[in-house]
Amino acid sequence: MEYSLFTKLAAEFFGTAILMIFGNGSVANVELKNTKGHHAGWLNIAMGYGFGVMFPVLMFGAVSGAHINPAMTLAQAINGMFPWDEVLPYIIAQLLGAALGQFIVYLTYYPHYKDTDDAEAILATFCTTDADNKKLNYFLNEMFGTLVLVFGALCCLMDPWGEKDPAAAAIVVGFIVWGLVTSMGGPTGPGLNPARDLMPRVLHAILPIPSKGTSRWNEAWIPVVAPIVGAIVGAWLFKAFFA
Predict the structure, then answer these.
(1) Where are the transmembrane segments (predicted)?
(2) 88, 28 Cβ separation under 8 angstroms
(3) H or E stretch covering 59
């Protein structure tokens, strides 16, 4: 069935919020002091992000397509796979959802933010940075990671087997994210999603967190622009070879 635009936007809003709760919530559990998951490790974070994408796609894929990512929305529109008149509403819903999800993470981990004096650990629960402090590496990692994500997701969700069994396709997409975080996530986090990085960075800047340090706005454009570039190429590859 065809859903109203309002229902689609609600799906994008709640789907992106769930992504943040599972994804950045897992980072907070690992990085912040005195949590029961403190130092649980990178696989805990990768699993959180994998589930953070898998569940919204299962829940809302049939409603809105579960883009939950402005880069995915723009890439599909630029490649003629999504209507342009819905792009801005989708992106606004995704940005607001990311803000809500991050704020929920902040509220649930509030005592641990107060206990943590490591500014880098605090920042990691909000947004991405490059481990080697190199902007070129930052850009390339986010670009290629998003390219693989979008190409893989579209192959799963839009190929005949995925359209026949969308639940199985959604589960595979979750594993793609899980695998990407374990394989290509070391340099930057990764973000792979402008909403997932930009809105939490805004909250990091305005929330009263002791020892939070800088929000690193001088590099904030990279995890916004690079995923969009990678997503456009990934969607083009899918359309050119497999659509």
Answers:
(1) 9-30, 42-66, 87-109, 143-161, 168-186, 220-242
(2) no
(3) helix 42-64
- What span, in angstroms and rounded, lies between the C-alpha atoms of 62 and 31? 35
Q: Which residues contact 240 (CB under 8 A, 6 or more apart)?
A: none
Residues 129, 123 contacting (CB under 8 angstroms): yes
d(CA 66, CA 14) in angstroms, rounded, equals 10
- Preceding peptide of 190 cis, ω within 30°: yes
- Global pTM? 0.96
Contact 176, 153 (CB under 8 A): yes
- Decide if 159 contacts 43 (C-beta within 8 A): no
**Rounded Cα gap, residues 221 and 232, in angstroms:** 17
For the chain, what are the domain ranges? 5-242
Give one DSSP letter per residue of 143-161, joined into a string.
Answer: HHHHHHHHHHHHHHHHSHH
CATH of domain 5-242: 1.20.1080.10
Question: Distance (Å, rounded) from C-alpha 116 to C-alpha 34?
Answer: 8
Structure tokens at 178: 């899980």
Per-residue pLDDT of the chain in tens (243 residues, 90 and over written 9): 899 999 999 999 999 999 999 999 999 999 999 999 999 999 999 999 999 999 999 999 999 999 999 999 999 999 999 999 999 999 999 999 999 999 999 999 999 999 999 999 999 999 999 999 999 999 999 999 999 999 999 999 999 999 999 999 999 999 999 999 999 999 999 999 999 999 999 999 999 999 999 999 999 999 999 999 999 999 999 999 998
